[in-house]
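Appendix B. Raw example, untouched.
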Amino acid sequence: MDKALKSVLEWWDAAGVDVPEVRLSTPRRKATPPASQPQSAQKKAAPPTNSPSSKPIMDAAPIAAKAKTLAELKASMDKFDAGALSDAARQCVFARGNPEADLMVIGEAPGRDEDITGKPFVGRSGQLLDKMLASIGLTEDDFYITNVVNWRPPKNRNPTADEIDMCRPFLDRHIELAAPKVLLIVGGVSLSAMTGLTGIMKQRGQWQSVTAAGVEIPALPIYHPAFLLRQPVLKKDAWRDLLALREQLNPTK
């Protein structure tokens, strides 16, 4: 029963549904009292070693601040030590599209295909995203895509809050240098990272405001294409959101 419940909760979490924390039962083991030892035989605990998962991680803020161009920012991120996150990934996944476009798309984190190619949104969900944007007349020349986390998390899991915080200075500088007029926030993880809001099913289609370098930028949250691939019935909601995006990019006069 616990296994089935855990599977449902994980599916809801991937869809951006707010769920209460549920404590799953675990088998109890009978406690075994420790054997008594003479005080002279007791050893002090050894200090913790610096394992790969606990090694110090570089501070992204001063590195991002030094980048004067997008090319410099990419070069800095390619050399950045993101600890276990970058250790498990092939490379940093920076961006694709036109950096001078009015629209900047903010996804969640790279997957397997993105980790291989070094470009965001190139797998099945990326192909669907391109088709969605094409449906309102946008080509790759009209948008610029990146993620809140630029290295593929192990086993395609969602990035942790610590990983998002670690990468945030790079994202802030990325937005500042690209200077888009509109942001498209893709998925629940990106929604939370960019706005502090949760529940993509409640917030999708609701315009938000994101501040970058003192400039407020209108931002529209939408369903992640990977979610739409599993729930195609929700594409009608996605279409309404795309029409709102088109109106924002090309307001009627």
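End of appendix B.
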